Amino acid sequence: MDARGRHSRDCATQADGIAVFIPDDKLLVLTHQQKGDNWQGVSILRSAYQNWYYKKTFYQIDAVKHERQALGVVDIEYPGNASKEDRAEAVRAAQNILPTSSYTSSIRPIGRSHSLI
């Protein structure tokens, strides 16, 4: 309550933090789609919220996809007579290409193929 007995809820606060009292007869209230005693009404941007929400969510999903999956798959081919040491060295070399958290590879002998349907 201020010196004149008014509550702070009856005042408007300016950008500089000073509370200014506006008498009721000087106050202009503009309300969009008021229903009943709800003087706040409905926001003009309410209809845009759903589109904004989905767009934001799809951008987040797309970013995760690119971070995890869009780096590709390392395809390792080795000769049929390759030793276990040669195969292990090929796998180690492939792991150095991509970060460990997103490492995916396909390891197969030459002449064989994999497919994902």
Describe this structure in words.
It contains two helices and four strands, in the order ββαβαβ. 30% of the residues lie in helices and 14% in strands. The strands form two sheets. The chain has a two-stranded antiparallel sheet with strand order 1-2. It folds into two domains: 1-49, no CATH class; 74-109, no CATH class. It starts with 10 loop residues before the first strand and ends in an 8-residue tail after the last strand. It has 117 residues and is α+β, with helices and mostly antiparallel strands. It has helices at residues 46-68, 84-95, and strands spanning 11-13, 19-21, 74-78, 105-109.
The total count of helices amounts to 2
Number of separate domains: 2
Radius of gyration using CA atoms only = 33 Å
Terminal-residue CA separation: 72 Å
Extract low-pLDDT stretches.
Answer: none
Number of strands: 4
Strand content: 5-15%
Helix-strand topology string: EEHEHE
Report helical residue fraction: 25-40%
Structural class: alpha+beta
Give the biggest beta sheet: 2 strands, antiparallel
Strand order of the largest sheet: 1-2
Overall pLDDT score: 75
Which of globular, elongated, flat, extended, rod-shaped describes the shape?
A: rod-shaped
